[in-house]
UniProtKB/TrEMBL annotation:
Name of the featured protein: Aspartate carbamoyltransferase
Keywords of this entry: Pyrimidine biosynthesis, Transferase
Organism: Weissella diestrammenae
Family that this chain belongs to: Belongs to the aspartate/ornithine carbamoyltransferase superfamily. ATCase family.
Annotated Gene Ontology cellular component terms: cytosol
Gene behind this protein: pyrB
Length: 309
């Protein structure tokens, strides 16, 4: 794998291979030594979980980290992202992990097909894709159920502004899950119809296997929407309340990419409830990202030879 920028660009066997690789790391599979592999993380948007998770994954792989703050880099002088990346490659950086506000920032760089470009990992682009979050979400679901085919999964909340929703809707549909959506209809993009149906939150709630809640992204909605937003009304209409939690079947799990707005998308007492996998997702994020980074230097055949549980 040369780059990891959109999980929906991968074949099913490649996705399952990465999931099993992540689970193997979690189970204690020894980490291969990649001598002198250097990585830089460029986060042009704020991040806690994704940024730290990548750093921990890189350290567990034994990679050397090059610290570079985008706010003090030459991008502030007008240097293009392409030239910044080629500069990093020229001085010895092998892989660059990037979060950027621009959708599809990676497409023109990949199209260059230049040997001057390092491996690229997309840590989130605008409201486009969040492939490493998708992989850790898939890993969490697979860890619980052992498959995706036929699982009933509902993604609920701010669908329009969520790169997590867009990434997951497509890949879960491709993997055979029955995906449905809920949340404010004003935040429901019509193109999601190709992956599943929009429905009310409580429709067939007792039959769902996975509830995937989304953060309301106030930084991406208009000032008018923010002015009219009611935390109480949103929670009562689109949030996971205790009453709705009680309707879920015993084996169902609750997911959220975090940060969580407690009392808005989910009742604060349910964040650590038995069905919640929110913090387990964060733990899995480290191992999923180890699998992603490790795969940049492994062939598909190598992935398949790993002794998995």
């Amino acid at each position: 794998m040369q780059n990891f920028v959109n999980i929906n660009d991968l074949e099913k066997h490649e996705i399952i291979g990465l999931i099993k690789r992540g689970l193997a790391f979690k189970a204690g599979t020894s980490v291969p030594t990649v001598a002198q592999h250097m990585v830089a993380n460029l986060f042009f948007e704020n991040s806690t979980r994704t940024n730290v998770s990548f750093q921990v994954a890189e350290q567990k792989l034994g990679w050397q980290q090059v610290r570079l703050d985008p706010d003090t880099s030459s991008t502030q002088k007008g240097e293009s992202l392409s030239d910044t990346l080629k500069t990093l490659k020229a001085v010895g950086v092998d892989t660059v992990v990037i979060r950027h506000a621009l959708n599809d920032w990676y497409r023109p760089l990949i199209d260059e097909q230049s040997d001057l470009m390092p491996h690229l990992v997309n840590a989130g682009d605008g409201n486009g894709q969040h492939p490493s979050q998708s992989l850790l979400d898939l890993m969490t679901i697979y860890e619980t159920f052992g498959h995706f085919e036929g699982l009933k999964i509902r993604i609920i909340g701010d669908l329009a502004h969520s790169r997590v929703a867009r990434s997951n809707a497509e890949v879960l549909h491709q993997l055979g899950a029955a995906v449905s959506f809920s949340g404010p209809q004003a935040w429901y993009p019509d193109d999601f119809n190709q992956f599943g149906q929009y429905t009310d939150f409580e429709t067939d709630l007792e039959t769902l296997d996975v509830i995937m809640l989304l953060r309301v992204q106030h930084e991406r909605i208009s000032s008018v929407e923010n002015a009219n937003f009611s935390l109480v009304d949103y929670h009562q209409t689109y949030g996971l309340t205790k009453a709705r939690y009680e309707l879920l079947k015993a084996q169902a799990i609750i997911m959220h990419p975090a940060p969580v707005n407690r009392g808005v998308e989910i009742d604060t007492d349910l964040v650590e409830a038995p069905k919640s996998r929110i913090f387990a997702q964060m733990t899995n994020g480290v191992y999923a990202r180890m699998a992603i980074l490790d795969a940049l230097d492994l062939t598909t055949s190598n992935l398949n030879t790993i002794n998995l549980k």
